[in-house]
Amino acid sequence: MTTVAAIQGENWVVVGYDSRVTEEQKIYTLPKENGKLFKNGNYLLGVAGDMRAVNLLSYVFKPPAVTATTYGAKLDKFISTSFIPELKKCFEDASYSKEGDQDSQVIVVVNGTVFEIGNDYSWARDETGVYAIGSGGDYAMGAIIASLETRKRTLATAKTIVRQAITIASRLDPSTSPPIYVQVQHFG
Q1: 5/17 Cα distance (integer angstroms)
Q2: Which residues contact 170 (CB under 8 A, 6 or more apart)?
Q3: Which of 25, 55, 57, 123 would suit a FRET pair with 91, their CA atoms being 20 to 30 Å apart?
Q4: pLDDT category, 83, cuts 50, 70, 90?
Q5: d(CA 66, CA 43)
Q6: Cα–Cα nearest to 118, from 47, 62, 174
Q7: 103 near 95, Cβ under 8 Å?
Q8: Please, are residues 17 and 135 in contact by the beta-carbon 8 Å criterion?
Q9: Whether pLDDT at 46 is above 90
Q10: Residue 37: which pLDDT band, with cuts at 50, 70 and 90?
């Protein structure tokens, strides 16, 4: 599968991802410009799971427009009532979604907020602002939490910690591998 990890700060979000894809007994290393994290409108979208989801979210999905003033409970409602229905429609129209579920996890970053969307289209936000998905997600999550206990949460340290966490995941998870890339979304 993969590892995608994120740390949410006061007015930024750092998201990192690895480059390995395993499909039908084959191993691929994705180029940076066609990776598992990409900008789509005002969104950063990270995917763990099927490459089909990456393809659809990169080239087919048209996310609904969101204003920069939409945050907090309004943003939660927007994700529930606008974003997820459009995501589900995109997957269903492409015959990717089956019986209301799909086979990937998605990290959505919008307006400085991270949403983790499951294969059943449910979403969650965590008050810690720390997220990790994919087969190496648990390893990355542990590494991030351990690092944040002893370091101040700044943009610079978040970049370093996310990169280190995915590196650790790549040592423990055979479906995660360098190169590792990091992107930042600034807000406000």
Answers
A1: 6
A2: 3, 18, 20, 136, 176, 177, 178, 180
A3: 25
A4: very high
A5: 9
A6: 47
A7: no
A8: no
A9: yes
A10: very high
In this structure, the chain runs to a length of: 188
For tokens 């920069």, the residue is: 68
**Among residues 121, 59, 117, which one has the least CA distance to residue 89?**
121
Domain 4-186 has CATH 3.90.550.10: no
Q: Which residues contact 58 (CB under 8 A, 6 or more apart)?
A: 34, 38, 40
What is the distance between the alpha carbons of residues 83 and 115, in angstroms, rounded to a whole number?
11
Is residue 13 within 8 Å of residue 114, measured between CB atoms?
Answer: yes
Residue 174 tokens read as: 């055979």
